[in-house]
Each structure stands twice: as structure tokens, then as C-alpha cells.
């Protein structure tokens, strides 16, 4: 029997703050991929965006990474990676995928070398080694259904980036109430061409937790218990992370990818 393909799930976003729904996306995606019988999810990675993204209400990456770490303390397979948030400029999603894929390949090569060194006498027994050699990992971008909609936003994405994402890496897309990702795929010539590499996962237990609504509730002094982890609630209170002032940050500012595209066009 062929080995299952190891898969790393990568989610890029603001995580402002990390909610229970953010973590549920990983669990749903893992269940779905395991049920295909082809994949074994080995790791989940949360990658908070850089402060330079320019999204309204975006608080410091220092806080967003810290809150994500607290939220993931109970997970034995999902971690937060600060690499993207630590870059001096906003980093395109495709570049974040390349970075983490290269890191995965580096680990893969290390494991392969380890197997070669620990089984030197079996080099001629190909059938035996084929069962022991690690399988080349895959990296897939995890997203919500609304993410596909952003592909249609003028100047937000480069077409060559979308192509590389869906062709080389692949998407695992979690559907939400009122969204129809399959229709979005069929309406796009590019997405429909690579739909075999886009996994649509239905969330049967609807959970429409919005980070924007959570921040709004926090600013009004309302309870957000059971919407985000208690450790994150405590961190927000201790550091006074979300305020009326923080919600006005980047107000009226274009997102960095739109600013870059406008600069190129002009």
C-alpha cells in the first residue's frame, strides 16, 4: 500500500485576534484530507501578516503573534510562525508559501539523509527502502470561502501568483454560510483549470465568529467568552490591545497590495 502524502496546512491572515473559528478551520481541513485516504496532515501553521499590510484596525504583530501562541497552547499539531510578520515589508502570500515549502523540503532532506545513514546496508534492497523512505511533503494554503472571492478584487492579486498557488501548492477552502465556492471556481477559467487541486470542505456545524465583531464587542466592554480562548481574553485585558483608537489605525489607507499595484499602473 502506498504511503499517504504528508501535508502541511498553512493559513495566512491578520489573526486579529485568533478566534476559535480560526482553529476550527485547521481541524476541519485535517479531517477532510484524512478522509480522502491519500493524505496525512503532519502540521498546521498560522502565519500572521506584517503590520505593513495596512488593514484597518490591525494591531501590532507583536500582540497578534503572542495571542496566537496562547490560543494554540492546547494544540499538539498547529503552531504560529512569526516569519511573515517579522518582514520589513508586506510579503505576498505566494512568497510565504515558497518560504514554508522550502523549510519543509529542508526537513525532508534531513530525514532522508538520516534514513540513508541509519540503513546503509539496505541500499540495494529497493523494495525494503521504498517503504521506509520519507514521502515528499506537500504544502497547501488553508482559507475560508471568502478568500476565493478576493481573487476577483481588481489589483489585489497578480494572476501569476494565483496560478502558482493553485497549481503548485493547492487550496483547502472551508465553506461558510451563504457562500458558494464551487460557483466561484466555475466562473474562473484559471481556478476551474486547477480545481483538482482545490479541496472544498463544508462546515456542517456553522460557526460564524468574526474577528471584526469580536474587536467591536471588546471596544464596547462586552463579553467575548467562549468565542476566543480565555488565555487570549486575559492577554487582551492585560495589554489593553483593542481600543477605539486601535480600531482607527490605518483608517482610509489602501491595503499594501493595492497601493503597490496602483504605483505600478501609474
TrEMBL record:
Cytidyltransferase-like domain boundaries: 10-216
Cellular localisation: Nucleus
Principal localisation: nucleus
EC number of this enzyme: 2.7.7.1, 2.7.7.18
Domain of life: Eukaryota
Protein name stated in the entry: Nicotinamide-nucleotide adenylyltransferase
Pathway: Cofactor biosynthesis; NAD(+) biosynthesis; NAD(+) from nicotinamide D-ribonucleotide: step 1/1; Cofactor biosynthesis; NAD(+) biosynthesis; deamido-NAD(+) from nicotinate D-ribonucleotide: step 1/1
GO MF term (any one): ATP binding
Listed Pfam families: CTP_transf_like
Catalytic reaction list: nicotinate beta-D-ribonucleotide + ATP + H(+) = deamido-NAD(+) + diphosphate; beta-nicotinamide D-ribonucleotide + ATP + H(+) = diphosphate + NAD(+)
Family per similarity comment: Belongs to the eukaryotic NMN adenylyltransferase family.
